[in-house]
């Protein structure tokens, strides 16, 4: 499937501002900007296995499209939500357990690049990944 493979972050746009709005302190934001994130995605029908590897943690996430699951960000923020396919995009909506606000995420493949867009409280950030 299009998302299958290992993706390494190459650059980010507006990521610091996004993390600030998420409530992440300046020290963690500076570290987060250089997390060397690698995402390995394997899709089998509606089941996705995602391995996230960064400077700060390694985590395996398994989810089925359209089914809610729990997830925590690298800073410890806990979320509950789901991913769905909309055309050729993976679209996620995740509610923060601490304040009930929604984080939206979109993963889209364009050429040899995966673009991940985050939106929270009206602030949008993008991270660009290249296939490793």
Automatic annotation (TrEMBL):
What positions does the domain Cytosolic fatty-acid binding proteins occupy? 5-22
Extract the SUPFAM superfamilies matched here.
Lipocalins
What keywords appear on the UniProt entry?
Transport
Q: Which GO terms describe its molecular function?
A: lipid binding
Q: Which InterPro entries match?
A: Calycin, Fatty_acid-bd, ILBP, Lipocln_cytosolic_FA-bd_dom
Per the record, the domain of life is Eukaryota
Q: Which family does it belong to?
A: Belongs to the calycin superfamily. Fatty-acid binding protein (FABP) family.
Listed PANTHER family: FATTY ACID BINDING PROTEIN
Q: What is this protein called?
A: Fatty acid binding protein 2
Q: Which organism is it from?
A: Varanus komodoensis (Komodo dragon)
């Amino acid at each position: 499937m299009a998302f299958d493979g290992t993706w390494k972050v190459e650059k980010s746009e507006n990521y610091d501002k996004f993390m600030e709005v998420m409530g992440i302190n300046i020290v963690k934001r500076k570290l987060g900007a250089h997390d060397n994130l690698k995402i390995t995605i394997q899709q089998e029908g509606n089941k996705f296995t995602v391995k996230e590897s960064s400077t700060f943690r390694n985590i395996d996430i398994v989810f089925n499209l359209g089914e809610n699951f729990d997830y925590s960000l690298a800073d410890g923020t806990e979320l509950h939500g789901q991913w769905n396919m909309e055309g050729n995009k993976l679209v996620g909506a995740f509610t923060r357990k601490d304040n009930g606000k929604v984080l939206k995420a979109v993963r889209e493949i364009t050429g040899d690049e995966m673009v991940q867009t985050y939106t929270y409280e009206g602030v949008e950030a993008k991270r660009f990944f290249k296939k490793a």
